[in-house]
Amino acid sequence: MLKNKPGLLLLLCLTFLNAVHAQDHLANRNNQTTDAPLSRLTTNCTGATISSVLPLSGPANTVITVNGSGFSAGTTSVKFNNTAAAFTVVSNTILKATVPAEATSGNIEVTTTGCSVIAGTFTVLASDCNTLGASDIYISELYDHVPGSYGVIELYNPTNNTITFNGNYVLERYGDVGDGTPSYTLILPGSIDPESTYLVLSYGSGVMGCSVTTNTVMGTGINENDQFKLRKNNVVIDDARAPNNAGYTVIRQPDAIAPSTSYSAADWTFTSQTCSNLGNHNADPAAPGAVITSQPVNESACVNGTASFTVGVTPATGAVY
């Protein structure tokens, strides 16, 4: 027992007192109580330096140029209001990024060596150019049946040619508008004939809502507030949305510009569920915008000299260069 070993007891007491003294000394040195942390971990974070960004507004697919320094050190992402964008590090002082189709107005965030900096604020503008025109497929109708889990997504080919999907077209269904991850994803199989529809069945159980022949199947039903995106070569080309109620038919207006990444409820009619329009679509879209057929070429000129550039456009009427 300790009472029979006074030397050992004295040694234990001195050791305890020294330990308490050392802790008090460290705490007082840091102006902290003995209950506070006795050490701190700090990291150095040095991101790229931004000097300018041009332009600071434009529609989707606008290419911006970010000037600064430090981009070659390891730039890993560029985001427009938290939406990731494709980018290219041109040099240590120049970076180019493309405004993604789903971007919204907000900060441009550049991440280099794990450090994020705000390069500027970008304003996304609605494009007044129908670059796709009536040259690609789009979502033409949504149908949801109640009761049960029967739904159909209709696609339409407005062109005069058969479009073979070849794994390039993907249809996505999101459980709610604005969700970041789709609940169903379908790589479209087969092809779609000229000026014809293509029906995608989404069915789980219950009543088979309509007696129509479908082309393929995706998921086990659709619901209210769903969002549907059509991708081509991994780029969103079209956006359709369900209403906030089940049991619906949603049909794209004949004169709506489609496909379109800018959703507008005015481009659609909303009614209660009806099978009468599935497999048929009336389209009378606005005339597509001008198509560039040839690009200008590089020219050299001396000081005070001149250079001429030409571009081919069809139709040329009304085009300004």
Write the layout of secondary structure elements.
Elements: H1 6-29, E1 49-54, E2 57-58, E3 63-69, E4 75-80, E5 83-84, E6 87-89, E7 94-98, E8 106-112, E9 115-124, E10 138-145, E11 150-157, E12 163-164, E13 169-174, E14 184-187, E15 191-192, E16 196-203, E17 216-217, E18 227-232, E19 235-241, E20 248-252, E21 268-272, E22 291-294, E23 312-314
Strand order of the largest sheet: 17-16-11-10-20-21
CATH topology of the domain at 138-272: Immunoglobulin-like
The fraction of residues assigned to DSSP E strands is 35-45%
By CATH's scheme, which homologous superfamily of the domain at 138-272 applies?
Lamin Tail domain
- Series of H and E elements: HEEEEEEEEEEEEEEEEEEEEEEE
The level of helicity is under 10%
Rounded to an integer in angstroms, the radius of gyration calculated over CA atoms is 31 Å
The 3D shape can be described as globular
The biggest sheet amounts to:
6 strands, mixed
Average residue pLDDT: 83
Q: How does CATH name the architecture of the domain at 138-272?
A: Sandwich
Separation of the first and last Cα atoms: 100 Å
Under CATH at level 1, the class of the domain at 138-272 stands as Mainly Beta
Low-pLDDT stretches are 1-42
What structural class do helix, strand and pairing data support? Answer: mainly beta
Number of helices: 1
Count every beta strand, where a strand is a DSSP E run of 2 or more residues.
Answer: 23
